Each structure stands twice: as C-alpha cells, then as structure tokens.
Amino acid sequence: LSDILVEYNVSSSLIHQIGQLPKDDFDVRRLRAHKPYTILHEADSAHTACSFVYHPNPIEYVALHFADSVRVEHGHNPVDTVEHELSGLITSSLYEAVLESGGTPQLVNEMADVYAWVIDFFGLQVGDQFKVLYTTYEVEGEEAGFGQIEAASFTHMGRERLAFGYDQGEGWEYFDECGA
C-alpha cells in the first residue's frame, strides 16, 4: 500500500497512520495482488491522493479517505440478480452436458449437491436429462458470483426428480414436489 500511496504524494506519517487503523476497519495485510483499486486525487498538478478504494471482490469495496483525517468506508456496489434457465441431455457426464449447454463448473457442483442423496452421478445413462433455474450476480454487467439454484429437474433412467429451493430461516434447502 505504501508503494502505491507514495506515488500520489501521501506522506509516510499518514501511511503509518493508515497502517495503525483497527484491523476490523482496515487491515493492510488483507490487500491482495491483482485486485483492482482506485486512487482519487486532487485536481492539482501534484495529483495528491485523497482516497484509496480497494475492491477485494466485485461486490464489496473498502474506501480509505484521508484528505482531512483518516476514515474508512465499507460498501457494496449495486448488484443485479440475473435468472438463468439451462437444460441439457446427458451424452457422457453431467459435467460435459452442463458445459455444452452453456453452464459453468460451479453450476455442475451445485447441481451435484442438490441431488447428492438421490442420484448416483457415476451411474448416469445416455439420454438422462436436466433442467435448472438458477441465479447469478452481476455488477455493472460483469459476472460477480453464483447465486443459487432455484429449482431443478433431473430425469434419470426415465424417472423425473424435482427439486425446489426454499429458505425456512436456516439457509437454503431443497425439497421435492411433496415437500420432502
């Protein structure tokens, strides 16, 4: 952090003050290489920094403001929830079928978790089918994370198994059409 801020005329005493902030507010040890950040600076010729905004992930940010005194602001970028529908036919594996249909490896893992106690994924048959409704998160049109599977259907050996997601207050769980 000091290497970055020194380039924008932030004094070493101010950098030290930032390093002494309570770890709950801002922990310099949590800064990671290759994560985006923004420097806001004065419109003067020296381009003296007045804020440092760090983005640990696409959704969250931590802003250090140090024009007058040092203060920390934690925030979230506006997140859009995007609904998706995907279906496919098993020709070799669930993984291949989901990817061929436009899904992601994470979606494969989530589907396997939904049906882990009901379907033996090592015993899939050519011709088995799936349909899944799921959400993802976007920030400014860029993918920002996987949401959850809302509902799914998996037909294995001619038998359709449905799963509907629901939160009863203790986290997201899946139930069949009878509520079991």
Structure description:
- Helix content is 17%, strand content 40%.
- With 180 residues, it is of the alpha+beta class.
- The relative contact order is 0.11.
- β2 and β3 (60-65) form a beta hairpin.
- The longest helix is centred in the middle third of the chain and has 10 residues, at 105-114.
- The N and C termini lie far apart (52 Å).
- It is built from four helices and nine strands; from the N terminus they run ααβββββααββββ.
- It has a five-stranded antiparallel beta sheet with strand order 5-6-7-8-9, with helices on one face. A four-stranded antiparallel beta sheet has the order 1-2-3-4, with no helix packed on it.
Layout of SSEs?
Blueprint: H1 2-6, H2 12-19, E1 37-41, E2 49-54, E3 60-65, E4 71-76, E5 80-89, H3 94-100, H4 105-114, E6 129-139, E7 142-156, E8 159-167, E9 172-175
Antiparallel strand pairs: 1-2, 2-3, 3-4, 5-6, 6-7, 7-8, 8-9
